[in-house]
Amino acid sequence: MSSTRAARSSTRRSWPGSPGRQRSQALATEWNTDMATLLMVESWLHSTGLCLPPIIRRLGHEYILFTKDPALYPPISPGEPHPVIRDAREIVVVDTNDDDATCAAASALAGKRRIDGVLTTCDYYLATVATLARLLELPGAPPDVMRLATQKHLVRAALDGAGLPNPAFAVAADWHDARAAAARIGTPLIAKPVDLNAGTAVERICDEAGLKDAFWGVNSAERNTRGQPLRRLLLMEERLEGEEVSVEALTFKGLTTIIGITDKSLTAPPACVESGHMFPARLSPDIARQVETFAVDALDAIGFTHGLSHIEVMITADGPRIVEINPRQGGGYIFDLVHLVTGIHPLEMLVDLALGQMPALDSRVNAASLDRVAAGDGGQRMAGSVEGATTGLPGSAAVFFVMSPRDGVVSHVSGVERLDADPRVHRWALPTPATARRPRDNDAYLGHVLTVDPAGDGARVRAEELVAALRLHFADGETTPPLIAP
């Protein structure tokens, strides 16, 4: 299933003052004015990291990669370079964990060629991208907003400051403070590091032993997977109960458009790993409106004015509550689900926004669906939502992840012939042999099955059924079905 993207305008917004823009007239005869040159600062290896490079090329643009080490992006198969490396016009090796070095390299690059936008798919470089965009006077979110948005405890404080309903929370760098905070909040509670992603080290805590494990696990981790120093702070939150969804949105010039709402399933406690998603979530119009409004209020609370966002919301008995705000596109192949159902590709939106363009949403945008201005000057305005994407659009797409209930080496997977034979399977991936471990974060995924239901909301059920019918064969001779969410 696919759709044709609307014709793109060849006119890009001028952002005067950037070193690249100051030479645009002089270089006009040397550049194709329909081609933009993007600066990509690192990338994820999988999912968005595999998909964005060919999308940039398909849109007629090019990018220059800033990376601290090209070896971070190994070949995806023998003789097949990683797309991030393969599709780059140029690779600049620079310590991307050092803002001063990265800014110096960007300034030097902009002194030689026109740079039209800066982007990344990797959470750990969102603030760096904002800093470079500010330096080069290119489109982007304010750097201080991106620094706040990527620190979970600062987001909680901002929600409190805006007067939004918020679970009780506390942050601790000391074990005694953690114990005291947990006693105030009560158990069960959710504990997590303030500055990691992909569900890493998110735990449901029921007793002091679990709290101690969570605290010392976070306190002892000095760097993330990209070598950046961690704050080693434990965030403890009152546990929210209800249905968890995520709001996919784009914000341009302070106007937020809701792309849609995605449902999700989680593994059983103590780890809370996302096991699958379906787009769109099937919600009543009233609940969908409440969730959309609350998500925009939350973006307003952190000062978010530019970019894609993936806002995780718990629909509780007392109304919507924020789980986390992610100032980037949804991961876990949510961008594929959105594209299959709406014809709108979030990664194309990412490119548009980096170039200072409002993404083309065609007639799918229903500006009258919800149009309101938050109280106060500079309030966030909700421009609308993608028509039908939350409640009325026929069809659904879902992804379910293959995870193992035990550690070990999976030699092969049986039952995949059913995946090839089922017309509702859009795509599946199960590379073997593979090292499996019980899920503690999204790195436990062995593969995925992505399904579509052109006429209804059955995509999730079918994806779960197909994954449940698979069998994991371990090198030690044991055979087991994949882990299925409760």
TrEMBL record:
It comes from the Bacteria. Residues 1-25 are annotated as: Disordered. It holds the Pfam family LAL_C2. Residues 1-14 have a biased composition (Low complexity). Residues 156-355 form the ATP-grasp domain. One of its GO terms (molecular function) is ATP binding. Gene3D superfamilies: 3.40.50.20, ATP-grasp fold, A domain (3.30.1490.20), ATP-grasp fold, B domain (3.30.470.20). Keywords: ATP-binding, Ligase, Nucleotide-binding. This is ATP-grasp domain-containing protein. It comes from Phytoactinopolyspora mesophila.
